[in-house]
Amino acid sequence: MIRSLLLVAAITLPMYAQKVTLEFDEGADFTQYKTFFINEGQLNSKNVALKGELVRKNIQTAIRKRLTDRGLTEVTSGPRDLNVVFSLGANRQREVDVYPARWWGTRRVVTGYTEGTLVINLRDTKQKSLVWRTITVEDKSDAAHIEGKLDDMVKKAFEKYPPKK
Predict the structure, then answer these.
(1) What residues does each domain of the chain span?
(2) Of 26, 30, 41, 146, which sees the most CB atoms within 10 A?
(3) CATH class of the structural domain 16-93+112-157
(4) Cα-Cα-Cα-Cα dihedral of 155, 34, 73, 19, to 10°?
(5) 152 vs 96 pLDDT, higher one
(6) Is the pTM of this model over 0.70?
(7) Residues 136 and 153: beta-carbon distance below 8 Å
(8) Residues 116-149 pLDDT 10s
(9) Strand-pair category, 35-38 with 73-74
(10) How remote is the C-alpha of 16 from its chain's centroid?
(11) Computed from CA positions of residues 152, 157, 162, 163, in that sequence, does the dihedral angle turn out positive or negative?
């Protein structure tokens, strides 16, 4: 019995982790970017915990902090070097694991979880092109837990900004 529980825990624990994907324009000179503006962003979730005005403000605050920590200055009007656009979405997922169950056949374990995806784009305003994109995926048991991880998702997204060529 204990062995079965350990096997189930070993199967389901790895899926609750963050995954960060980074893409950037290798031809872009990131040293020239000094100012940024954060657009309103999109919240694409059916879950109430992830589509409120406070969620949007928390994401904007986290992005603002990470970019200013890297020496950029936020501007609210006038010319700027980068436009920041973000999108947060969440979907309920189901994972089914099948493993042998001794002499009586196989056993199925169904695990439900919420997958939250935060996409952050930095667009060069002069070239009118995307220069940097990060996609952070967080898997949690429910959407409320993803809301608590938004700051960490943004932090991990900006760990490699500016990118090393």
Answers:
(1) 16-93+112-157
(2) 146
(3) alpha beta
(4) -10
(5) 152
(6) yes
(7) yes
(8) 788 999 999 999 999 999 998 887 666 666 778 8
(9) parallel
(10) 13
(11) positive
